[in-house]
Design brief:
about 40% helix, 7 strands, three-stranded mixed β-sheet, disordered C terminus, mainly alpha, disordered N terminus
Length: about 350
């Protein structure tokens, strides 16, 4: 994702006087008491603050060992310093980030202008940052690109290498509100801080109430249950927030996510039977076992290895070719379709 030679500063900076409203951030203290079905329950095995600090340390060490690149841009902590979900996604803050981001990717029509790129009038860049689906799409690729692989490490590998039990790890809240964004000077995402906080209500295996319907929690293997919860409780709200801030459709964000998740699962050296099961669950299943729609369904092409262009799994073009200083991806579906069309006409 990063251009060659590009460094990732840790300084949080918002230019031109943009002041995010940090009062929107709520640091939730560790909790051991919750409410389920109207009745108060006590979590007798809750992690303490000391435990959470140790879990953060162990996970960061694990990530540095397994994925050093992502360890530079993602850290588990109990004391985050970055911009919380409700801060960076304020329209004024987000648009400032996109305006800074637009400086490196101005409209294509301006690339042949005699005006140097750095001197393009701000009103042009401002319009570009508001209206360019491609610009928002690329910003979203940075956002999810630095978030997804570390979280897959957390969900799939961390519980087996940390001292805490699976049940205790599952108590940690993975909602977007506990992920703090560190902006790069260029406006894109530089990294994340994952604030380890216990969920407000223990994730007990009992009846749950949602949208006036009573369902029974489906007991699935730990990894699958955590993946589904992450999609439902983190990725869906994140995509909804981004689509509310940008002209980019949700389908494109889910295409990014499908591509990333599929790619990184393949990097994790999972047993083949488990890898195939997870692919079927995430990409070939219309709804999860609790009845909720699966937004990753058909987000990518899952082609057999023997099929032509089996490595071209994208279903939707990310649009980055529309931006200056960018290019068409090697596995762009537009190129594949054009090639197939030429072959059919030959």
């Amino acid at each position: 994702m990063a251009r060659q030679g590009e460094t990732v500063p840790t300084l949080v900076k918002l230019s031109r006087g943009t002041q995010p409203d940090h009062t929107l951030c709520h640091h939730t203290p560790s909790q051991s008491v919750g409410t389920v079905g109207g009745a108060q329950t006590t979590n007798l095995t809750a992690l303490s603050q000391v435990d959470l600090t140790q879990v953060a340390k162990a996970f960061n060490q694990r990530l540095a060992l397994r994925a050093p690149f992502y360890a530079q841009h993602f850290v588990a902590t109990t004391k985050p310093q970055g911009l919380c979900f409700d801060t960076w996604s304020q329209p004024a803050v987000y648009q400032q980030l996109l305006l800074d981001f637009a400086k490196a990717y101005p409209p294509l029509g301006k690339s042949t202008s005699p005006i140097p790129l750095e001197n393009i009038p701000e009103q042009i860049l401002l319009s570009h940052s508001h209206n360019s689906k491609a610009l928002h799409s690329l910003w979203g690729q940075w956002y999810f690109g630095l978030l997804v692989p570390p979280m897959l490490e957390w969900i799939i590998n961390a519980p087996h290498s940390l001292a805490s039990t699976l049940e205790q790890i599952e108590q940690i809240d993975i909602a977007p509100e506990h992920f703090y964004l560190r902006p790069h000077d260029s406006g894109r995402v530089a990294g994340f801080e994952f604030q380890l906080t216990l969920a407000p209500t223990p994730q007990v295996k009992t009846a749950i109430v949602k949208t006036a319907r009573v369902k029974t929690t489906v007991l699935t293997p730990f990894r699958e249950r955590q993946l589904i919860q992450w999609i439902q409780r983190h990725l869906i709200p994140s995509v909804e927030r981004l689509t509310g801030l940008s002209p980019t459709p949700a389908k494109l964000y889910w295409s990014h996510l499908g591509y990333l998740i599929h790619w990184y699962l393949g990097e994790m050296a999972l047993p083949e039977i488990e890898f195939e099961r997870l692919k079927a669950l995430l990409f070939n299943t219309k709804a999860f076992e609790d009845g909720e729609v699966n937004p990753l369904y058909n987000s990518i092409n899952l082609l057999p290895a023997s099929a032509p262009h089996s490595d071209n799994i994208r279903r939707v073009c990310c649009l980055r070719y529309q931006l200056v200083n960018s290019h068409r991806c090697g596995d762009c579906p537009l190129a594949t379709r054009a090639q197939a069309k030429r072959a059919a006409q030959a």
